[in-house]
Recover the amino acids of this structure.
């Protein structure tokens, strides 16, 4: 979904591009804090929530 | 039964063709024969008339020189007269009369000297008994006397009669010949159509791989047969493609669907105690079905591309930008795998393609290279202008492929990594090949085990794009 919206990849290869990217973002946003803001919802995607 | 098949034969194109051919041949012969007959008859008549006119001229001269006595003397010198000669005075009294042996007395009544003028008049009198004819020339002389000279046209009618007889004799074999010719023509012409009909019949009866027997000629009917075969081959490829896709899908769908079912079962049996298990099971189901959907979508895409049904929005694509975009998308993944990547693309290289599809092709090749290259490896993307078109090369320093693997990498759902430790469906390269071929391009691979693999995509030269 994220892949389609941002990169217009309508038919993407089975890739972990997004996972890796979110991993990077998470490292920047959440690493220093106890209350995490980026959460994974399995089977759906990711959500940004105030702890 | 025999009558019925005869009746059916009457309506076949072959029969009609034969009859038309024979009919036209005969008509031709008849017209030609008739024309020859008329020409022959008229030239023979002309010859006879010439003879009579000469005799008449002689008589006129004798009459002018020596009068009635001279004519009488000339006639008497014939002995047995071969010409009919009559000199009639202005008072309609017969002055001189010579009758050949064949002459018919009744003919004299027809030849009335009273209606003769100062120009030569011709009479053609039928004899009542044997069908011979008499030609008579009549001329009124200056003093009012009428001179008539005639001859039987026996020789003429003999020749014409012989012509008629021989023409009839020639006509009989001619009928046979034209009928045979018509039949041969019909059989030869209808042969390719017959074999086409037989082919269609056996295909309708279930022998789907029957093909029309064709000869290498420029005939339209042979061309039709060849085109028909091409069409059948194309249809066979389409059907085979559908069958293969269906087989593979059925085989490949079993595992995920079984997993879906297992997840649901587990949730129903055990989750009552731990509600968190519900969430877990539903998430499993969602992931599994997402995977299934992707697989189905990709399979349908491959089928579409392979059968030429994929809609392609062709436009000039700037390769350097497109490669940079794809590499950018994979940048973090490449970093994570600790790989080096380098892109070489002259800014002048353009290619006519569907940009989304081309991106998909490059992304799949890059994804593949990342998957099979160990940390520290190098991936090189190169685009270049070639004499025959544009080439894009994706090269890695990964584990490469054995010759056996090389033979299978384009197969649907084949995965080089037997342990299935990487994520993937085994559809990426099939899709690459199908999409490139839908663009009328080619894709080739070369590889040395352990040292790496090299994929080369070539697109044919489009009309030069220099926007």
């Amino acid at each position: 979904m994220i892949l389609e919206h941002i990169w217009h990849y309508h038919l993407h290869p089975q890739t972990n591009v997004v996972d890796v990217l979110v991993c990077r973002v998470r490292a920047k946003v959440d690493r220093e804090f106890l209350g995490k803001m980026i959460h994974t919802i399995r089977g759906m995607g990711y959500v940004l929530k105030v702890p | 039964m025999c009558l019925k098949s005869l009746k059916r034969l009457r309506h076949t194109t072959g029969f009609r063709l034969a009859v038309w051919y024979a009919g036209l041949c005969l008509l031709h012969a008849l017209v030609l024969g008739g024309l020859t007959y008329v020409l022959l008859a008229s030239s023979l008549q002309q010859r006879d008339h010439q003879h009579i006119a000469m005799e008449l001229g002689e008589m006129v001269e004798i009459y002018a020189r020596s009068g009635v006595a001279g004519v009488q003397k000339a006639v008497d010198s014939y002995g047995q007269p071969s010409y009919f000669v009559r000199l009639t005075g202005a008072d309609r009294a017969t002055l001189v009369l010579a009758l050949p042996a064949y002459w018919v007395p009744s003919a004299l009544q027809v030849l009335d000297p009273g209606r003769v003028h100062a120009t030569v008049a011709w009479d053609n009198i039928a004899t009542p008994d044997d069908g011979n004819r008499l030609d008579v020339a009549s001329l009124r002389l200056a003093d009012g006397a009428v001179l008539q000279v005639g001859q039987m046209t026996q020789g003429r009618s003999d020749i014409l009669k012989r012509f008629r007889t021989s023409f009839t004799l020639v006509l009989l074999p001619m009928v046979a010949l034209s009928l045979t010719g018509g039949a041969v023509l019909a059989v030869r012409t209808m042969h390719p159509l017959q074999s086409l009909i037989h082919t269609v019949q056996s295909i309708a009866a279930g022998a789907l791989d029957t093909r029309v027997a064709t000869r290498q000629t420029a005939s339209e009917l042979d061309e039709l047969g060849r085109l028909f075969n091409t069409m059948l081959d194309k249809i066979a490829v389409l059907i085979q493609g559908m069958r293969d896709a269906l087989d593979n899908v059925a085989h490949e769908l079993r595992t995920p669907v079984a997993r879906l079912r297992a997840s649901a079962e587990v949730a129903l049996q055990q989750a009552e105690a731990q509600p968190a298990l519900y969430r877990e099971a539903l998430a499993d189901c969602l992931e599994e079905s997402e995977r299934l959907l992707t697989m189905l979508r990709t399979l349908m895409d491959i089928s579409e591309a392979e059968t030429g049904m994929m809609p392609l929005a062709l436009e000039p694509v700037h390769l350097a930008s497109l490669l940079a975009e794809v590499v950018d998308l994979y940048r973090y993944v490449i970093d994570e795998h600790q790989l080096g990547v380098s892109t070489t693309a002259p800014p002048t290289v353009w290619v006519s393609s569907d940009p989304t599809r081309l991106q998909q092709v490059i992304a799949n090749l890059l994804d593949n290279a990342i998957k099979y290259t160990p940390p520290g490896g190098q991936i090189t993307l190169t685009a270049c202008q070639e004499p025959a078109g544009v080439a894009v090369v994706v090269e890695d320093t990964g584990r490469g492929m054995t010759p056996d693997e090389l033979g299978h990498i384009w197969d649907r759902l084949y995965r080089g990594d037997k342990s299935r430790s990487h994520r993937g469906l085994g559809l990426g390269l099939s899709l690459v090949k199908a999409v490139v071929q839908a663009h009328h391009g080619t894709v080739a691979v070369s590889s040395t085990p352990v040292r790496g693999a090299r994929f080369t995509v070539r697109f044919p030269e489009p009309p030069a794009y220099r926007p």
Summary: Chain A has two helices and two strands. The first helix of chain A runs from residue 2 to 7.
